[in-house]
TrEMBL record:
Keyword Transmembrane: yes
Protein name: Uncharacterized protein
Record keywords, A-Z: Membrane, Transmembrane, Transmembrane helix
Domain of life: Eukaryota
TM helices/strands, residue ranges: 30-52, 73-96, 125-146, 158-177, 212-232, 252-277
Length: 306
C-alpha cells in the first residue's frame, strides 16, 4: 500500500492516533515515567527546599550564609540534577520504544520494553550525551554573541533591538538543528548500529529534504510546551513573598507542573518517532507493520510486509 507522505499536521495527528491506538499500554508507560519524576521532585522539595529558602532569605537580608549550608545545597543540587538527567534519558527511551511499538501495531508489554532498555541503553546514552553537549555548546556561543553585541552600546535602542533579533534568530536556528538532533536520538534507540556521531550522520541522511518539516514540527511543539516549562520553573523557583502558599498547595502545584512536563516530553518523543518512520519511508526503506487487533493502517506512504 503506497500513499503520499504526511504533512506536518498529518504527523501530529498520527502521533495522537499512536497514543490512542493502545491507550492502556501508553498510560502504563506514562505512569512509569511519571513516578520517578514525581519522586525526585518530592525529595528535592523535602531535602533542598529549606536550604533554598535559607539562601534566598540570606541574599535578601544581606546576611552571611554558612559555608556548610552552601556546600550541602550544591551537593544536593548536583545529585538531583544527575538523577533527573538519567530519569529523563530513561523516560525518553521508554517513550520512543512504546511509540514505535504502537505505531507498528506490535503487542508489546511494559516489562518487555524495560527489558529491552536494560540491555540496549549504552549506545543511546552516547547519542544523548552528544546531543546534550552540542546543545550546551550552542547555548553558550549564542549567549556570548548576544552579550557582545549588547556591550557595543548598552544605551542604544538600535543595539537593544539587534540583541532581541539575534536572540530570536538563534532560537529559531536552534530549533532547526534540534529537529535533526532529536531524530538522531530516536534513531539511536530504534537502530542498534547507530549511535553518537554515526546516529547524527544517519539522522542527516534521513531528514534530507524534510528539514523544514522537522523545523516546523519542533517549532509547533516548542510553542505548545514553553508555557509548561514556564509553569515548572515558576513552581520550582517562585517567590513566596507575593503569594503565601501552604506546603500542600506548593507540592500540588509542583506535581501538576511535573505531570504536564512529562506529558509534553512524552508527546515530543511520539511525534518524532512518527517522523522517523515517515523519513524512512521517504528514503524508500521498508517499514514492517503488524496488523493486530484494533489496528488500522494510517493513510500515508507505507510498505507493508505480511
Amino acid at each position: 500500500m503506497v500513499a503520499t507522505p504526511l504533512s506536518v499536521i498529518g504527523i501530529l495527528r498520527e502521533a495522537i492516533t499512536v497514543l490512542a491506538r493502545n491507550g492502556k499500554f501508553m498510560l502504563q508507560v506514562m505512569l512509569t515515567i511519571l513516578f520517578p519524576f514525581s519522586l525526585i521532585g518530592l525529595l528535592h522539595y523535602l531535602l533542598a527546599g529549606f536550604l533554598i529558602e535559607k539562601v534566598e532569605d540570606s541574599y535578601e537580608n544581606n546576611s552571611p550564609l554558612g559555608q556548610k549550608d552552601v556546600r550541602t545545597l550544591i551537593g544536593l543540587e548536583l545529585a538531583f540534577f544527575a538523577a533527573l538527567f538519567f530519569v529523563c534519558f530513561f523516560g525518553i527511551m521508554l517513550s520512543i520504544h512504546a511509540s514505535a511499538s504502537s505505531y507498528l501495531g506490535k503487542n508489546t508489554g511494559l516489562n518487555d520494553l524495560i527489558s529491552t532498555i536494560h540491555y540496549a541503553w549504552k549506545k543511546p546514552l552516547i547519542t544523548w550525551l552528544c546531543v546534550s553537549l552540542f546543545t550546551l555548546t550552542y547555548a553558550v556561543l549564542a549567549i556570548v554573541l548576544i552579550k557582545l553585541v549588547s556591550l557595543l552600546d548598552p544605551h542604544s535602542y538600535a543595539i537593544y533591538l539587534w540583541g532581541w533579533f539575534l536572540t530570536i534568530l538563534a532560537t529559531l536556528f536552534y530549533l532547526y538543528l534540534d529537529a535533526s538532533w532529536t531524530l538522531a536520538l530516536v534513531i539511536s534507540v530504534l537502530e542498534i548500529d547507530s549511535c553518537g556521531t554515526k546516529g547524527l550522520k544517519r539522522s542527516e541522511k534521513l531528514i534530507r529534504g524534510r528539514k523544514i518539516q522537522g523545523f516546523l514540527l519542533m517549532f509547533i511543539l516548542t510553542v505548545l510546551v514553553v508555557p509548561i516549562y514556564v509553569l515548572l520553573y515558576v513552581t520550582a523557583t517562585g517567590d513566596d513573598d507575593d503569594v503565601e502558599l501552604g506546603p500542600f498547595a506548593q507540592f500540588a502545584f509542583r506535581f501538576v507542573a511535573t505531570v504536564l512536563f512529562c506529558l509534553s516530553k512524552f508527546f515530543v518523543s511520539v511525534v518524532f518517532t512518527v517522523f522517523y518512520y515517515e523519513c524512512k519511508q521517504s528514503e524508500g526503506e521498508i517499514v514492517v507493520m503488524e496488523l493486530g487487533v484494533g489496528y488500522s493502517l494510517a493513510p500515508h506512504k507505507l510498505q507493508v510486509e505480511f
